[in-house]
Every structure is written in C-alpha cells, then in structure tokens.
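G., before I forget:
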Amino acid sequence: MPAIEDCLTAVMAIPGARSVGLVDFASGLVIAAEGRADGEAAEHAAGAAELVRAVVASPVFSSAGTGDEIEEITVSGTAGHHLLALVTTETDTRLCLHLALAADRGNIALARHRMRDVLRDLAAG
Amino acid sequence: MRQIRAHLERLAGERATGTLLLGEDGAFHLLDGAVAHVETGLTPSLRDLLTASGRLSEQGWERLRSRGPGQGPATPARLTGAELQAHALVQLFDAAFFLLRSPHEPVFHEGRGGYWPDFLAVDPVTLCVETRRRGGLLDEAWPSPLADDGPVEPVRRQRRQRVILTGLQLEILLNADGRKTPSGLARELGRTRFGCTLAVRGLVASALVRAPLPGAGDGPAPGVRVGGAPLREAGAPPFEGPTKWADADLALLTRLHDALRELE
C-alpha cells in the first residue's frame, strides 16, 4: 500500500521541504511521516493537532458570520515556516498535512499550491 | 493494560504470528510481532466507520472488499488507497485503546487468522505509548471515567448566553436520547469511540451533559457531598477542626497524579 508514502514523497519534493507528517488531528495520531525520527514525529503530530484543534474551536478565526471551514494554518518563524493543510472527510478521520519548510530555500506560495494538489490526489486519486 | 502490554512486547520480541485473544472482548492479530489488526466489538469496525458516516454505501463497501481501493470509475464515492490506509490505522488505534483495558486473561494462539485489511503493521510499543497519550487527553477534558460507559443524558436547560461546541459534540447532543452510550453513538454516527468519549467528557466538563453520580448502578450511591467535604456519620458530633483548609499544593498533586499514572 504505497498510497500514503507517494503523497509524502510528493510533498518532500517541494523546494525547501524539511519534513512532512500526515496527522489525524481529531486524535493527534501520526499516520505517516518523513524526514523525522519516529519518536519526534509523534511529538510533532501531537503538537500540530493541538494547534489545529485550538484554531478550529475558536470563533475568532472564522472569516464569515456563519463560520467557515479552516483550510490552512501557517506559522512563520525566522528560520522557517510550518504549513498545516487540513482535509475534513465525512468520517472521524480529520487529516492534516504538516510541512516544515526552510526559510532560505522554501517559498510559501509555491508550497501551498503544491500541497493542495497533493491533498486533492489523496482524497480523489 | 500492563499485562497485555507485556504479552504484546514479548510476542514482538519473538516476532510471533498469531492471535492474542482477550476473552469475548476481542483479539490482537499479530504478524511477525507487529499488530496487523485489532478485532473487537468494543469499538466501531472499519465498515461501521465508513458506512455509518455516509462515506461509502453498503455496495461501495462490498466493492472495496472485493476489488480493493481506487478501483472502478472515479467518483467521489470511491475510496482511495491513502484514505483506506488512514481510516484503517485510525480504527486500529481506536480499537486497541479500549481492548488494552480488557480485564480478560490474554491467551495466545499461533497461526495467521483471517482478517482484512491486512496491510498494517504497528509496533506494540507505539500502540501502548499512543494509548497512554490518549488517556492523558481524556483526563485533560474531564478527569473521571464515570461518563465513559453510561448513557449520555443532555441537560434540559442551561443559563449561559452562548456555548461553543465542536462539530462532534453537536452531533452527540443532537443524537443523544438519554439511553445511548458514547460507544453506541459512535457506531451510529460512524465515529471513533475514542473521539466520542473525548467529546462526551468535554460536554460533562462544560455541564451540557449530566455528570453521572459515582457508583451509580453498582452498590448504594454515596451521600451527597456539597463542596467535596468529607462524609461524616449521621449523628456524629459536629466537626470541630480548623475552619480554614490549607491551600492545595498543585505541584504535589501533579506529582502524585503522574506517579499513579505510572502504576497503570
């Protein structure tokens, strides 16, 4: 079953990608990761899930009166960026692709674009 | 959990293939020492997750079983390999969380059992670490297992002007009828039992679901204690101790809590 590995490989091919993880943010479970040690991946997944849950639960981050769906969260630091792209499925599995990007080699706009492509394939390929 | 964990770790060391049976609660299927499948009636099955949620129709599920993922015409009703893999893994961890708490004596039978999907392989140590982490999440939401297995009973009225819910909490309130348990709701909604249990604990903490009384059902209910003051025998002389309690030492309580968790 190489389906998820293919997705991660495609994300790691984005210029400046340091590491990537696919996380079920409903529970904080790491489904698959690349570019990190195993223990570290679980820790990153739990942290990312916490951030996503906090953003999703807060009405402050809604951009429409009736509430909208969060698609992406970007955290930018001086040395790099973290992009979290969300896919909400009909089931309990709420997936989030977490990409760590190096500031000097990565480009946020390009990475966002490529990540959405990967997520589309993940849900429909 | 400790005993089952020790069994799983020993079997992982021996790279055993077979079934670790836990009475009628279910079984862990092992392949070369790794957990490949968790079979249990305690949590919704993969089929429940996919069909009850509306992701797949019954026919869609049959097609998936017979032909595998990503086959047939490209419609939204088709499940991709990656989706199947993700759901199977989520189901496995959900099932393992509850099966690891089984009080039954584990019995191991060698030989490969029949199960599907058969492409997963999870290290038992990872499984136990994740299970412990999830236990922590539950305790953070509301530190008591009292609401986990009983019927979910939403409150009829409440005084706040505004309440913020997660989507799953809303689903639970809409579907709870005072008889369904978190596990029953999970099966009906096609959600994980862990997710529902966590949501219900959150609802109890925010007083939207009635908190079950300790000991309800087994043995006489303890006397009502307002403010958590110690129980006294009826007719005992009035309490004449200090009128002011010392402040709780949070650091000490945290250490004690952690130490008790280690014993699990």
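The first helix of chain A runs from residue 3 to 12. Helices of chain A lie at 3-12, 38-57, 108-124.

More on Monday.
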